[in-house]
C-alpha cells in the first residue's frame, strides 16, 4: 500500500486536471486556426468594387460576381 498525504493528493489531482484542461484548450485553438485558414483559402477581394467573395475554382484570375472584373488571388487577413 502506498501512503500519500492529503495535500500531495490534492496537488496531484489539481495538476492533472489543469494539464488536461490546458491540452483541450490548445487542441481547440489549433483546430479553430486551421478552420479559419481553410475558410480564407478561397476568399477573394475585388479590386474594383471591394466585394469579398469565395471562388473555389482553379482560375488564376477569378471574375467578380458583382462587377465582372478579373482579380488576382491575394491573401486576406493575418493568417
Give the topology, please.
Blueprint: H1 6-40, E1 43-45, E2 52-54
Antiparallel strand pairs: 1-2
What does this structure look like?
With 79 residues, the protein is mostly helical. It has 1 helix and 2 strands, in the order αββ. It has one helix at residues 6-40; strands at residues 43-45, 52-54. The protein has a two-stranded antiparallel ribbon. A hairpin with a 6-residue loop joins β1 (43-45) and β2 (52-54). The longest helix is centred in the first third of the chain and has 35 residues, at 6-40. The radius of gyration is 24 Å and the shape is rod-shaped. The protein starts with 5 loop residues before the first helix and ends in a 25-residue tail after the last strand. The mean pLDDT is 89.
Key traits:
79 residues; rod-shaped; single chain; 1 helix; 8% strand; mainly alpha; two-stranded antiparallel ribbon
Short description:
By secondary structure, this protein is mostly helical.
Global Rg: 24 Å
Quaternary assembly:
single chain
* Largest sheet entry: 2 strands, antiparallel
As a percent range, the share of helical residues equals 40-55%
Largest beta sheet: what is the strand line-up?
A: 1-2
Low-pLDDT residue spans: none
Strand tally is: 2
Shape call: rod-shaped
The overall pLDDT, averaged over residues, is 89
How many distinct helices?
Answer: 1
Strand content: 5-15%
- In N-to-C order, the SSE pattern is HEE
Secondary structure category: mainly alpha
Distance from N terminus to C terminus (CA atoms, Å) equals: 53 Å
